[in-house]
Amino acid sequence: MPVTQEEVLTALKDCYDPEIPVNIVDLGLIYEVRLVPAAESPQAQQAEVVMTMTSPGCPAHAMIGEQVKERVRQIPGIHDVKVDIVWSPPWTPERLSAAARKQLGIE
User: Fold this and answer.
1) Partners of 23 in the beta sheet?
2) What is the pLDDT of residues 2-31, one digit of tens each?
3) How far does CA 69 lie from the centroid of its chain?
4) Residue ranges of the chain whose pLDDT lies below 70
5) What is the pTM for the complete model shown?
6) Which of 3, 35, 96, 97 makes the best surface tag, with the fewest CB within 10 Å?
7) What per-residue confidence (pLDDT) applies to 94?
8) Strand ranges of the sheet holding 78-85, from the earlier edge strand across to the other edge
9) Inside any domain, residue 16
10) Contact assessment for residue 99 and residue 67, using Cβ atoms and an 8 Å cutoff
11) How far is CA 45 from CA 1, 22, 70, 77, in A?
12) Phi then psi for 94, rounded to 5 degrees?
């Protein structure tokens, strides 16, 4: 069975910004997850994750991108992972999930 976007997002909840004790999904850093057939293996998929950081100067952007790749590669059926870090639209605190707000003591 093909991997779903929900499976990828669930896996990404294991990834954290080292400066904020909330997973990157609840932080609102994930903008899009695309799943396409892998060219090298027709039975597998390539995951493409479009994401941002809380600020353009985030010193952990490379580490978080690698963490995303490592975690998504662990999903059975994923052949490869591409991470695209974008700055537009910029991240804002409005992207925080209700769970993240509660965890951070906001609202």
Assistant:
1) 16
2) 899 999 999 999 999 888 889 999 999 999
3) 9
4) none
5) 0.92
6) 97
7) 95
8) 30-37, 45-51, 78-85
9) yes
10) no
11) 11, 28, 15, 6
12) -65, -20
- Whose tokens are 């994750």? That residue is 49
CATH code of the domain containing 34: 3.30.300.130
Encoded amino acid at 75, one letter: I
Position 33 in a domain: yes
- Structure tokens belonging to residue 64: 């978080």
What is the residue-averaged pLDDT of the chain?
93
Q: How far apart are CA 107 and CA 98, in angstroms?
A: 9
End-to-end CA distance of the chain: 40
Contact (CB, 8 A) for 52 and 86: yes
Residue 13 domain flag: yes
What ranges in the chain are assigned the alpha helix state H? 5-12, 61-73, 98-104
- Rounded CA-CA distance 21/93 in Å is 15
Which residues form the domain of 14?
5-90
What's the total number of domains in the chain?
A: 1
What stretch of H or E contains 49? strand 45-51
Classified as helix, coil or strand, 85 is strand
pLDDT value of residue 72: 98
